[in-house]
Design a protein that fits this description.
Strand content: 15-25%
Distance between the termini: 38 Å
Number of domains: 1
Number of helices: 9
Largest sheet: 7 strands, mixed
Strand order of the largest sheet: 3-2-1-4-5-9-8
Order of helices and strands: HHEHEHEEHEHEHEHHEE
Helix content: 25-40%
CATH architecture: 3-Layer(aba) Sandwich
Length: 255
């Protein structure tokens, strides 16, 4: 199965459905950002600490798998030269919409988060990678490519799902019943029954993959990053968040 093509169409559909991560920021948000009053998220609710960012003015920033008209326009309004790469054309359209509406310059590129061959080595000062690698079958290539395209002393800000959420029967977990079912790493392609997988496909929902912490955190270290920041976050809509944080954010630097 061509996961990239399938998930591209699935996220186009999420735009049509009004998924919260596809709704562009308002003019008021951009106006405030131009005055220095801004924040972005890598995970559902907790803003990224401001001290995690460099001075954005004149910096080359890659918003990686970050379409939707949210992070990229805010960073561009702060004077960054922003490129947003996403697998979904409709998600990129949301960034183009805000850029046209607000007079911002944002370069939108359709592509795979694990293949940044469109960019040369050491092209960016900052990469912003909110929760999205759960839609990639393998995460280590994402870290390797991010390391390659960052300049020395460049920063990678990444959000991802704590893989423990994938060990449970996902349908029961939505009802607050936590029954261990799946081994890690998790994959919609192999961890589900054919009937369960077919239901997801018939609904047009994106296919997901639960990567181990060894791949999420160890993978960053193994390609050469130095971790300099870490926090956890909760989902306001998932029952398991009543018991534990389900999202992780990291700050890493390329030496």
């Amino acid at each position: 199965m061509d996961i990239k093509a399938y998930n591209s169409k699935a996220w186009d559909r999420e735009v049509e459905l009004g998924n919260q991560w596809t709704i562009p920021v308002s003019p008021n948000v951009i106006a405030a950002a131009r005055q220095g009053d801004w924040e972005i998220v890598l995970t559902p609710t907790k803003p990224v600490p401001r001290e995690w960012f460099p001075d954005l003015k004149g910096r080359d920033v890659l918003c990686l798998a970050s379409g939707g008209g949210q992070q990229a326009p805010i960073l561009a309004a702060n004077g960054a030269r922003v490129t947003v790469l996403d697998n979904s054309p409709r998600q990129l359209d949301q960034d183009r919409l805000v850029a046209a509406r607000e007079g911002l310059t944002i370069t939108a590129v359709q592509g795979d988060m694990a293949d940044l061959s469109a960019f040369s080595n050491e092209s960016f000062d900052l990469i912003v990678h909110p929760v999205s690698n759960c839609f990639a079958p393998a995460v280590r290539p994402v870290w390797a490519e991010a390391f390659r395209v960052l300049r020395h002393s460049g920063i990678l800000l990444a959000g991802f799902i704590n893989p423990v959420v994938y060990i449970f029967d996902l349908e029961l977990a939505e009802r607050g019943q936590f029954q261990v079912k799946n081994a890690l790493p998790y994959s919609d392609l192999v961890s589900l029954t054919e009937e369960e997988r077919q239901h997801i496909i018939e609904q047009g929902e994106p296919l997901e993959f639960g990567h181990t912490l060894e791949d999420q955190i160890g993978g960053q270290l193994d390609v050469g990053f130095l971790l300099t920041g870490f926090y956890e976050d909760y989902s306001p809509t998932e029952a398991i968040s009543h018991y534990m944080p389900t999202f992780i954010a990291t700050r890493a630097v390329k030496p």
